[in-house]
Design brief:
It contains 10 helices and 5 strands. By secondary structure, the chain is α+β, with helices and mostly antiparallel strands.
């Protein structure tokens, strides 16, 4: 029997809270967060921006190439709801294309080209610490409904706590090291995606699904698998093997 939305939401929280007591991969944690967000909420795609050691934002995970591109374009333009949510530490919603154009002309143009009409951005924040933002992209106008907005905020709060948890060393040092490791891992994952895309003659989204499926079925961290693929130590089959 298919799980209800409530069951899927509980599963998403369980996945996140597991990281509070076990070793985990920050990239996989955040990728699960955006995947669950698009499954649970009224969103077409999602992405997360994290702040690096230079206090600049970077795209760390996304559910599609076009949502990653919109995130990158916001960073280049220095404007957009994702950037504003991080800067202010408060959720930012834009309900339609007209509102986007009034507030962020460059972001509006990129969003329109990608086919997104409304966006809901949520800061990854714990008290005065803001790590980045999660962004839900939608192809239809209108605000994210209140229940979805509350649940999405709760998921991002748990993810933020998971990253900031103290583990036998100084809190701030660990947090920054985890974030930088996640951003560094993303670089090699992008390299592996490009390699698989080229060798398998598939688009980048499909290449990522092949990598992630192999990672899960073989219980290998995504970043470790990506390094192995780039070094040509592991060959990803066209159809992922079952565990």
């Amino acid at each position: 029997m298919a799980h209800t939305r409530e069951h899927r939401l509980v599963d998403a929280f369980v996945t996140l809270t597991d990281t509070l007591v076990a070793d985990y991969d920050v990239v996989e944690l955040l990728q699960s967060l955006v995947d669950n967000a698009t499954d649970l909420f009224d969103a077409t795609a999602a992405g997360i921006l994290l702040v690096n050691q230079s206090q600049d934002l970077e795209v760390v995970v996304s559910t599609s190439e076009r949502s990653a591109l919109v995130g990158l374009l916001q960073l280049e333009a220095g404007e957009g709801p994702c950037v504003e949510a991080f800067t202010t530490g408060s959720p930012v919603s834009v309900q339609d294309a007209d509102e986007m154009r009034r507030r962020w002309p460059q972001f509006a143009a990129a969003s329109q080209e990608a086919g997104y009409t409304s966006v809901h951005s949520i800061p990854l924040r714990l008290r005065d610490t803001v790590l980045g933002s999660m962004n839900l992209f939608r192809e239809t106008p209108g605000a994210l409904n209140e229940d979805d907005a509350i649940a999405a905020r709760a998921l991002t709060d748990v993810a933020t706590i998971s990253i900031l948890q103290q583990r036998n060393v100084d809190h701030a040092t660990l947090a920054q090291a985890q974030l930088q490791q996640a951003l560094n891992s993303r670089v090699v994952i992008e390299q592996a995606k490009g390699f698989v895309s080229h060798t398998h003659h598939v688009d980048m989204d499909t290449a990522f699904q092949l990598l992630r499926g192999y990672s899960r079925s073989h219980q290998i961290r995504l970043a470790d698998l990506a390094r192995s693929v780039v070094r040509r130590e592991t060959v990803i089959p066209t159809v992922n093997e079952d565990a």
